[in-house]
Amino acid sequence: MLTPRRAAPPTGFRFLHIPKTGTSFIITLRNQLDACKHKDMSCTGAAGGGVGRYEHGQIVYSSMFFEKAPAGYDPYCGGNLVACQSQTYHKFYDKQFQANNPSFAYVTLIREPVSHTISMAGWKCPSLRESREAGWRLTELPRTSLRLTKLNEVNLTTALNNLLKLDFFGVTDRWTESICLFHATFGGEPRPSQFLNVRPGDNPSPPAWVVERIRANTVWDRRLYAVGAAAFQCRVDAVLASDRAASYTACVQKHSAKDAGTPAEPHAAREQLPLSQRDAPLARGGPLP
Fold it and tell me: Which InterPro entries does this UniProt record tie to the protein (predicted)?
């Protein structure tokens, strides 16, 4: 069980990075910490996007990815950031780490489970990106579970309590609001880089029967997400009722505007698409992997 959130400002961050919820969030953590001298980037190599993705059967690399670290780059930010290290990347809560680093803040992101699972399937089985319906037969998905977690009616409450005890959690599907809420929580001003998708996924579009199978297998995940998203909204409402309302509102308006120098928020429009299309990558600032 996680211990309650701290009252004092954090000296560092540990990112509980659930796969396919937003590597780009590491940019926000680096930008926030004075100990991180290199800003506007996530990790180097595979952890931060130094791997290719497929477009029409061809592997391509984004110009925003770093294959080699800049001179003097410190992925650990003097030991104040745990996000890119190979030993902890995509790792979850570590009780001993928290005991040894009580002044660190734990942060994470949650994502709508159906689109999340589709994205996970595309990540685990790259062949699905170009496959037809036959490629989605469960017998052709080795090592890929269409269930995100082992949630059930017994441990759902524990999972929710642990989520609420984190110093911060955002919602991938509400990226702009999440970044602005992060700064309303920890202070500081966001930089334009924090609203970019620096590691877009090339996600598949499954047939309807696969979407329904995923929905059936993520019943408890979707319940947790619904309550978590409601709790996220409560935190937003609390900010809007406080002296931080003006800065939060200005942040959302600035970084949602098309003429603000950063991408417009895509999520409202995405909700109008069929489930099978909602996870398709958009241009800069689209749904984050």
Answer: P-loop_NTPase
